[in-house]
Write a sequence for this structure.
């Protein structure tokens, strides 16, 4: 099925009900645990002015019996829970199931009703909350929007991303509260976890959660004779050794409620060499609400960009068309005599990640722009007693000097 | 307006050609580059890393005025443009917006020594300054000293200020923001602090 993620995802409207306050009010999609703080995190549209019904979420949410904890505010004042009834799954006016708040004691006229609470369960009626960002991205694109079906995903990378998310101990949470471009929604979610998304050569959506782990086997080894060096670039802005960050986005006030910039998540050695290098604005974690996740991602970003050997962008061209199968995101190994590592040796069998590919099939040339990972191929020695660990070489860490 | 020493002004009037050179301050010290051989220009600075100094605790690398190298590697200077008000905008926009000054210098890297150096001694984020001076000053002063007309301090040259001779004019000061490497050149792009 063909798809266009550059299109807009339109949320459901309050106008599908008989007596809304505003027909254009969007029904929010709520994911994760949004019970943090002490003020409402998102606004509830008023969908029935006759019966005082508000839409908590435009879908079924975790039930109270399964642990949903609801707090409702009217003009930022906590509403007594005795004054309303929460329904986690309500086919109101025979429309698709939503989650509602029905007031028995109506709030002040024109009061803005906001909420804290928990969002979608993993499956209908489930006792588990959906908190893995891969599940959330899938839900938005397949269930809520319908722009993709399961086969549109690169299932291998999707599964790996899901598992990486779990192994990193991340938790996702946020609200889709306005119409937006599909890519923007995906990026806001994935970027909160150093994740990326792109469409591969097979027209499948690839989702990656970066854990700074290199593949055990590179995707391709390029011999020096096949390629021609074009240039290399190093930018000061790409060196990051401290990452002030904002998280706990509030959709009512339109700002982040928490900020963190601790030295524990910075790199002192890099600061001593390059000075403090930060982004121009705090890093934004739109879909993260807990400090542990933020700290883990901060350290990942700092460790991957704290020294110059990890942020060189190298351009070269291959005139053999042997690498026409390569795609962005792949890892390659190659050597450059013109570039040197911090030991003063030319880069040999260095591992790069492909950032960009420009193919000129008329001229039979493919140009690659790659990011130096700072890593290189290492030797694999047989522990058969033929080598002595005398300090002259590193077990599992020696440079592989084979000319491929 | 730049502060111009009287000596500088006198030499310009006399028709002498000034020397333009850049100074990059790394953790090891100062590295000077120009378009032509600097000769004994800067030779009488306080310390030159030519192997004649011992690290015996009497000096501290990176703090004193060390010149780690001076080489005629500059191939090209981009034009330095400074403006209060951009041509394409109206005059009042100069009060509410500012265009950051930047400058690129292309250096010869045919022997790959520069890229080898930069891998061990980072240039990125380091201060870069451009000076204009006269390299005949030293010869003239030495002749005067030999003839007994002049008694000089420190071998005849004045103390360093930010890596350049303080009788030279500082034209531009920034930090290296980007480095581009091609087959035979290295381009340093500096932006103002």
């Amino acid at each position: 099925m063909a798809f266009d993620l550059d299109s807009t995802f339109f949320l459901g409207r309050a106008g599908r009900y008989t007596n809304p306050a505003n027909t254009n009010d969007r029904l929010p999609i709520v994911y994760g645990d949004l019970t943090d703080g002490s003020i409402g995190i998102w606004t509830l549209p008023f969908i029935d002015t006759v019966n005082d019904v508000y839409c908590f979420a435009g879908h079924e949410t975790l039930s109270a019996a399964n642990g949903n904890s609801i707090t409702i505010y009217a003009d930022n004042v906590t509403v007594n829970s005795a004054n309303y009834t929460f329904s986690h799954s309500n086919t109101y006016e025979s429309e698709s199931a939503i989650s509602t708040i029905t007031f028995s004691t109506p709030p002040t006229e024109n009061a803005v009703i906001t909420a804290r609470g928990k969002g979608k369960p993993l499956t209908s009626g489930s006792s588990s909350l959906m908190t893995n960002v891969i599940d959330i991205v899938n839900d938005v694109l397949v269930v809520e929007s319908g722009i993709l079906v399961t086969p549109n995903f690169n299932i291998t990378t999707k599964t790996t991303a899901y598992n990486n998310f779990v192994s990193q101990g991340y938790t996702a949470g946020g609200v889709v509260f306005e119409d937006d471009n599909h890519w923007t929604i995906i990026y806001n979610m994935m970027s909160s976890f150093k994740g990326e998304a792109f469409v591969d050569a097979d027209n499948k959506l690839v989702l990656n959660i970066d854990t700074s782990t290199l593949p055990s086997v590179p995707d391709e080894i390029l011999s020096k004779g096949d390629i021609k060096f074009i240039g290399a670039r190093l930018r000061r802005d790409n060196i990051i050794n401290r990452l002030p960050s904002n998280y706990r986005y509030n959709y009512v006030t339109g700002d982040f409620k928490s900020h963190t910039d601790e030295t524990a998540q910075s790199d002192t050695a890099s600061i001593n060499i390059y000075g403090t290098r930060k982004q121009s604005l705090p890093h934004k974690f739109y879909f993260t609400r807990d400090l542990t996740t933020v700290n883990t991602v901060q350290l990942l970003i700092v460790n991957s960009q704290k020294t110059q050997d990890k942020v060189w962008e190298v351009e070269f061209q291959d005139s053999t068309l042997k690498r026409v199968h390569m795609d962005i995101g792949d890892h390659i190994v190659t050597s450059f005599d013109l570039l040197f590592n911090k030991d003063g040796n030319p880069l040999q069998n260095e591992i790069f990640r492909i950032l960009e590919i420009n193919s000129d099939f008329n001229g039979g040339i493919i140009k690659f722009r790659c990011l130096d990972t700072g890593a290189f191929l290492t030797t694999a020695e047989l522990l058969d007693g033929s080598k002595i660990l005398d300090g002259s070489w590193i077990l599992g860490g020696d440079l592989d000097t084979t000319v491929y | 307006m730049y502060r111009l020493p009287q000596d500088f002004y006198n030499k310009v009037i006399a028709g002498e050609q000034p020397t333009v050179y850049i100074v990059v301050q790394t953790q090891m010290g100062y590295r000077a580059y120009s378009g032509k051989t600097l000769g004994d220009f800067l030779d009488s600075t306080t310390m030159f890393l030519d192997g004649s100094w011992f690290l015996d605790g009497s000096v501290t690398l990176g703090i004193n005025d060390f010149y780690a190298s001076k080489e005629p590697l500059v191939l090209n200077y981009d034009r330095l443009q400074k403006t209060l008000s951009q041509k394409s905008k109206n005059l009042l926009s100069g009060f509410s917006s500012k265009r950051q000054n930047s400058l690129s210098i292309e250096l010869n890297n045919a022997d790959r020594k520069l890229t080898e150096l930069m891998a061990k001694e980072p240039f990125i984020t380091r201060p870069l300054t451009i000076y204009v001076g006269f390299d005949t000053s030293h010869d003239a002063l030495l002749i005067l000293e030999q003839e007994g007309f002049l008694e000089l301090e420190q071998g005849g040259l004045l103390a360093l200020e930010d890596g350049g001779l303080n009788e030279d004019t500082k034209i531009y000061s920034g930090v290296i923001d980007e480095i581009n490497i091609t087959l035979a050149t290295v381009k340093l792009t500096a932006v103002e602090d």
Observations:
- The mean pLDDT of chain A is 93.
- The helical segments of chain A are 133-144, 155-168, 182-190, 268-274, 291-305.
- The CA atoms of residues 166 and 219 of chain A lie 25 Å apart.
